[in-house]
Design goal:
Elements lengths: L1 E6 L1 H7 L3 E5 L6 H11 L8 E2 L2 E2 L4 E4 L2 E2 L15 E5 L6
Parallel strand pairs: 1-7
Antiparallel strand pairs: 1-2, 3-4, 5-6, 5-7
Organism: Natrinema salsiterrestre
InterPro entries: Beta-grasp_dom_sf (IPR012675), MoaD_arc-typ (IPR010038), Mopterin_synth/thiamin_S_b (IPR016155), SAMP1_3 (IPR054834), Sulfur_Carrier/Prot_Modifier (IPR052045), ThiS/MoaD-like (IPR003749)
Pfam families: ThiS
């Protein structure tokens, strides 16, 4: 199945583009996709998943909803889903 990925700030720089479509297995989860991204892009290695969970302060949205409020890395994906990945943001 195909899903859309959106990257922001430093993650966009690491991937080299703002959006891309990715083909994933029918039973893929958010964690599967994040692991594949870490393996594919040097700039994302170790930046997305830590100890089997999404790294602290990282925002990963599925269709605009934070996956932390769903099933985290085990959140299932459906064809056409949009997964957005935001790096930690500091400021005040």
């Amino acid at each position: 199945m195909e899903i859309d990925l959106r990257f922001f700030a430093t993650f966009r720089e690491a991937v080299g583009q703002k959006e891309r479509t990715r083909t994933v297995d029918d039973d893929a989860t958010v964690g599967d996709v994040l692991g594949e991204l870490e393996a594919e892009y040097d700039g994302l290695a170790g930046q997305l998943v830590e100890g089997g969970t999404i790294r602290p302060q990282l925002s990963v949205l599925k269709n605009g909803r934070n996956v932390v409020h769903m099933e985290g890395v085990d959140t299932s994906l459906e064809p056409g889903d949009v997964v957005s990945v935001f790096p930690p943001v500091a400021g005040g």
